Amino acid sequence: MHMTAATLGLATATFLASAVEFVEAFTIVLAMGLSRSWLAALTGTAAALLALTAVTAVAGVALIQWVSESVLQLVIGTLLLLFGLQWLRTAILRAGGLATLHDERAAFRAEQEAARLAGHQVRLGLDWIAFVVSFKGVFLEGLEVVFIVITFGLSATRYNPHGLLVASGSAVLAGLLVVVVGVIARRPLSAVPENTMKYAVGLLLTSFGTFWAVEGLGYFGSGESLTWPGQDWAILGLVVGGLGLSRLAVAGLRRTSETPRIAG
Amino acid sequence: MRLLVSFLRFWYDFIVGDAWEIAAGIVAVLGIGAGLLRTDGVDRAFIPLVVALGVGLVLGGSLLAEVRRRRRAGR
To answer: What is the ipTM of this complex?
Structure first.
């Protein structure tokens, strides 16, 4: 398999984005497992993974078989752009000192406290609260991973016919790494530089999302995808432009905030 | 009905999140791009630049809105 710089970039972005989501999902499952029931927490996780596999298969087949390239680029590019801007906005606000950094230990304590206060309900022989919370946590975090894998994967197929495989492999690798490190550590993975990762991934998602959404706008013209000046090199321009703009925003926010913090 | 509301709320939270102005801004920017594409005499090479600039403005606008929200809340 020929690995170009673009494919490597997409694999890295998928890996980082997936790792951030998996760390958050891991915290929820760990809290439910430790405070309520490991059987219910792991069954909820397995059920969520099954549901995600089904969604990926259905969405993947539907997108590839029934949707034209420009519509696919427009819809997926727009979604990617929305996720990317939300991530970038959050990361900028945190780095600029206007929002507190995400703290996995605090999130873990909050989940444990909620689990402790929730009533006891048994369904299908399982602690239902632990099952539902684990299911929802893994499914919601995983759904973002699915979107990222599909978009980055399909995008990478331009450079590499195995693009979807590379993106899926990167996400699986990130998931395995989080689980292995988490099981060894047996505590929330608070040492992960979540904001820096979120910043980088937000920047990449925004850049690829803008690139794709603009190409997809061609649907409203001749139906053919619109072409960027400089073609694929425009992605690099978008990343550099986005980085410059976001650093300016962080500097501006730090000046206005009372307690500057460092991204991490 | 409750199921439908929950379903719609899930997708709203998932796609729009806590900064509605980003979603509204992106739809507006892409709408402008699509409009320019259907306008005679507009150079197609110009459209990606307009959209990219618009995306930057949406992000900047959302950050400014957040700063104002926090100031109003007396942070």
So the answer is: 0.89
Amino acid at A69: E
Residue of B nearest to A230 (CA): B45
Tell if the CB–CB gap between A214 and B17 is shorter than 8 Å: no
CB–CB contact B63 A92 (8 Å):
yes
B5 assigned to some structural domain: no
Report how many domains make up chain B. Answer: 1
Check CB contact under 8 Å for B52 and A238. yes
For the entire predicted model, the pTM comes to 0.75
CA A103 to CA A264: how far, in whole Å?
10
Q: Is residue B11 part of a domain?
A: no
Chains A, B: CB pairs < 8 Å: 86
Average pLDDT over residues A211-238: 85
Is the residue at B2 inside a domain?
Answer: no
CA angle A65, A68, A73 (to 5 degrees): 110
In a domain, A11, yes or no: no
Looking at chain B, which residue has its C-alpha nearest residue A248? B60
Only one residue has tokens 């995306």, namely: B55
| B68 domain residue, yes or no | yes
